[in-house]
Each structure stands twice: as C-alpha cells, then as structure tokens.
Amino acid sequence: MKKIVAAAFLLVIGAEALALAGPDRGLILLFAGVAVALSVLAVRWYLTREGRAEEEPAIDDAAESLRRWMSRTEVLVSRAEATRTEWDRHLRPMLARQFEMATGQKRTKDRAAYHASGRMLFGSELWQWVDPENVARDGRSESAPGREALDEILQRLERI
Description:
The chain has two domains: about 1-80; about 85-160. Helices cover about 80% and strands about 0% of the residues. It has five helices and no strands. Helix 3 crosses helix 4 (about 110-130) and helix 4 runs antiparallel to helix 5 (about 145-160). It starts with a helix and ends with a helix. Keywords: Membrane, Transmembrane, Transmembrane helix.
C-alpha cells in the first residue's frame, strides 16, 4: 500500500513537472487531474483486491479452527468414557485449571478453602472427579465417571 501511494505521489509530481516544462502551461490542470485519477483508481483496486484475499483465508481459518475444536472435544469425550487413569491424566488437570481460573482459588494458598469451594460448587460426588489431589495410583481397571459427569462439571463451571 505504501508503495502504491508513493508511486501515485511521484506520478502527480512528474505530470506537473512535465506540464511546466512544456510550452502550453494550460495543460497542467489536465495532466495533474489524469495523474490523480489514475492514482485513486490504483489505490481503490489495491484495497478491493486485498479485501478479497483476506476474506478467503479467514473462512478457511474458521473452518479449520472448528475442525480442530471438534476433534479435541471428541477426544475429551472419549477419555471421559474410558478408564480412570485416562481421566486422571488428561481431564482432571484441565478441569482443575478451569476451576482455579473460574473461582480464583489457588490450591497452594489455602487448601481448606480450595476444597470447601470445590465441594460447594460441584458437590461431594463431582468434586472427587475435579480435585487434583484425588488421583488414583492404581485406577487402570476402574472406569471413568462418563460423559454425563463431564457435562455436569462443565455446566457448573460455566455458571460461575
């Protein structure tokens, strides 16, 4: 864009210099008008071409972003229905971070307040699936709480 504006400016200056150098100085206005018109058309063409070029990738970026989000969501749901080990490894840390960000409670500051606010928000049954300290060391055969529990936890986090 800067190059086009600079070229347009030089075109107008050049047209006026040529008109001044010529024998008929009445043409200065005509040359300057043509140079300005060409400059304005060049800038307009550049802006409309740039606008179209930016719109297409934005649509592709939005579609790609939606595909990635859908893929991540499918993986999260499948982990919610897998074993407790999968839940503890992948979902529990994410849910605990979301809980800390939503409530402003930090586990390291006051553990009692952290656990109390978790039980108040989720209830004892759901809090055990969010609590970052409740990781099972041997949960390979135990099943995860499932999609319904994940949905309920996420809904409660949204309400904050």
